[in-house]
Design brief:
Elements: E1 3-6, E2 15-17, H1 26-39, E3 44-47, H2 53-63, E4 68-71, H3 85-94, E5 96-99, H4 111-120
Parallel strand pairs: 2-3, 3-4, 4-5
Antiparallel strand pairs: 1-5
Helix pairs in contact: 1-2, 2-3
C-alpha cells in the first residue's frame, strides 16, 4: 500500500529520479540544481527527501515551477530530517509525498533501502 499526500496525478507522469550524497560537495550541489532545473519543465523530479542532494533536487524543481515527488522512509506526521520542514510543506502544495509506512512511523535504518526501490521505479520520460 502507498500513502500519498498532495497531487496523486503526478504518479502517472514521466519522471526522473535524483539520488545523491547527504555530505555532498559544492560541485555536486550545483550539478543537482542545474540538472533538476533542466528536467523540471519536462518531467517530475523524484527523490528521497533526505538532507543533501535529494533536498536540493526537490527545491530546484519547485523553484523552476516544476513538480516533484518525495519518497519518504517514514510515515506522515514525522518530518525527517526536521530541517526539511519547509520543503515538506512546499512538496505537499506543489507536488506530493509518498510512503509505504503508516502515519506516525519513525524512520529506521532498514526503511531507506526500501524507499530507494520506489525512487528507482519512477516512470521514464519518452524524449
Amino acid at each position: 500500500m502507498l500513502y500519498v499526500w498532495g497531487d496523486v496525478a503526478l504518479l502517472a507522469r514521466p519522471s526522473v529520479a535524483f539520488v545523491g550524497s547527504r555530505d555532498h560537495t559544492a560541485y555536486g550541489a550545483e550539478a543537482a540544481r542545474i540538472l533538476a532545473t533542466a528536467v523540471a519543465p519536462r518531467a517530475v523530479v523524484v527523490s528521497g527527501m533526505a538532507r543533501g542532494i535529494d533536498a536540493i533536487a526537490h527545491a530546484a524543481a519547485l523553484d523552476a515551477s516544476g513538480c516533484s515527488i518525495g519518497v519518504l522512509g517514514n510515515g506522515f506526521g514525522v518530518i525527517y530530517p526536521a530541517a526539511n520542514r519547509a520543503l515538506y510543506e512546499r512538496m505537499v502544495a506543489h507536488g506530493c509525498l509518498v510512503t509505504e509506512h503508516p502515519p506516525g512511523e519513525r524512520p529506521h535504518a532498514g526503511s531507506f533501502p526500501r524507499r530507494n526501490r520506489l525512487i528507482s521505479g519512477c516512470r521514464a520520460p519518452s524524449w
